[in-house]
Every structure is written in structure tokens, then in C-alpha cells.
Design brief:
The structure holds 2 protein chains of 2 kinds. Chain A has no helices and 10 strands. Chain A is an all-beta fold. In chain A, strand 3 and strand 4 form a beta hairpin. Chain B is an all-beta fold. Chain B contains no helices and 11 strands. Chain B has strands at about 5, 10-15, 20-25, 30-35, 45-50, 55, 65-70, 75-80, 85-95, 105, 110-115. In chain B, strand 7 (about 65-70) and strand 8 (about 75-80) form a beta hairpin. Chain B starts with a strand and ends with a strand. The mean pLDDT of chain B is about 95. Classes of the chains: A mainly beta, B mainly beta. The interface of A and B includes residues 3 and 91 of A.
């Protein structure tokens, strides 16, 4: 199938290493942040979220860090696996009707 | 639990035609949002439906319209198709009413090609 990752910034990591994907958001009023993973030919899949009253949240093998001062979000993936290869989007939302604004995406390539 | 399903998966239309895309929301979800994703870009918000009414709209012209039905399923209609409408159209559902902090759950989209 065709790639969703055309012309996107690409991060290449060795299998087993940790990955860090960064995202800058623009709206200081955003209070809810989400990371999505999108594989070719599929819709975005929820990975982890964080509210603006937190600065760190951990899931299984993933950690999201939020720095509101500089409007920066990062996703850390521990022990990266080939199945982690995909395009990763950060997304932000303000209160109300849940309009979610997506970033441009980062393509993660895992080298076996 | 049934996830978000969209139909058809692929569609080819001619410029000027009209198209209807369909979405069934995830079980227990009452809100449906539609997104357009051009190749190599992030999804762009089209609009959201809640209680069968449009509840928020992105920067899309009126020829993009939608419906939500009592069973929370939804349709996206696009009139007078243009070549730039070629994209992946994503439907997402969420359980509004349980707080705003609930992530969208996406279907796999409909790939629309306008020739």
C-alpha cells in the first residue's frame, strides 16, 4: 500500500535502542495531548495521552513528556521493535468539542 | 467490542461528481468526527457530529456536509468533487459525556481518488 510517510521527517533507530520523537505544538490554550501511530494503509492508532496538568505519563514501553513552558511534547519508546515502524503524530486539543489538531508527523524506521 | 468501521475502503470518482462515505462508530461512542488526510500529511479536521447535529467545523467549504443517525453512525457527503479532494477520509468516534479527555478512535479510512 502507499505510504503515509512521504516527505516526512524520518528517525532511524536500531532495533532494541530507545526512540525519542519530538513535537512542538502551537496553541498555548491546548490542554490535552495525544500521540498516535499510523501504519501504512491504516487509520491512526491511539498510543498514549497526557493532560496539561501533568508533565510525564508512562505506558507500556512508552513515555510521554510535556513541557508547557516551551510548548514541547515528546514520545519515548523503549527497546524499539520492528513493529514500531510507522508514522507517529502528536495531536493537541482544547476543551469543548474535542477538535483535535494533528502535527505533521515523524516516520520511525527500525533497523533490524 | 467493535471498532470504527468505514465503507467503502476505496473509491474513484470523476471531478464534479458527488460522493457519500459511511462510518459506524465504536460501540458505546456517541460522537463522530471526520478528518481528511492528504498524502504525506497529518489528518485535518472537517467536522464533528454529536446528537445528530454538527458540533464544530474545520476550514472546509459547505460542499462538505454530513449526517449522524440515531445509532450514532455517520455519513460524509462531498458535492462537486475537485481533484484536490483526493485523500484518505478518516472517521473517528469518541465517548463524549465522559469528560473531554478521551482519545479519538479511528477507522482505517476511505481512500478517495478524484480523476
Amino acid at each position: 500500500g502507499e505510504s503515509v510517510g512521504l516527505h516526512l521527517p524520518t528517525l532511524s533507530v536500531q532495533e532494541g535502542d530507545n526512540s525519542i520523537i519530538n513535537c512542538a505544538y502551537s496553541n498555548s490554550a491546548s490542554d490535552y495531548f495525544i500521540w498516535y501511530k499510523q501504519e501504512s494503509g491504516k487509520g491512526p492508532q491511539f498510543i498514549i495521552d497526557i493532560r496539561s496538568n501533568m508533565d510525564k505519563r508512562q505506558g507500556q514501553r512508552v513515555t510521554v513528556l510535556l513541557n508547557k513552558t516551551v510548548k514541547h511534547l515528546s514520545l519515548q519508546i523503549a527497546a524499539t521493535q520492528p513493529g514500531d515502524s510507522a508514522v507517529y503524530f502528536c495531536a493537541e486539543s482544547t476543551g469543548g468539542y474535542q477538535k483535535v489538531t494533528f502535527g505533521t508527523g515523524t516516520k520511525l524506521q527500525v533497523i533490524p | 467490542e467493535t471498532g470504527v468501521t468505514q465503507s467503502p475502503t476505496h473509491l474513484i470518482k470523476t471531478r464534479g461528481q458527488q460522493v457519500t462515505l459511511r462510518c459506524s462508530s465504536q460501540s458505546g461512542h456517541n460522537t463522530v468526527s471526520w478528518y481528511q488526510q492528504a498524502l504525506g500529511q497529518g489528518p485535518q479536521f472537517i467536522f464533528q457530529y454529536y446528537r445528530e447535529e454538527e458540533n464544530g467545523r474545520g476550514n472546509f467549504p459547505p460542499r462538505f456536509s454530513g449526517l449522524q443517525f440515531p445509532n450514532y453512525s455517520s455519513e460524509l457527503n462531498v458535492n462537486a468533487l475537485e481533484l484536490d479532494d483526493s485523500a484518505l477520509y478518516l472517521c473517528a468516534s469518541s465517548p463524549r459525556g465522559q469528560g473531554i479527555d478521551s482519545p479519538l478512535h479511528f477507522g482505517n479510512g476511505t481512500r478517495l481518488t478524484v480523476t
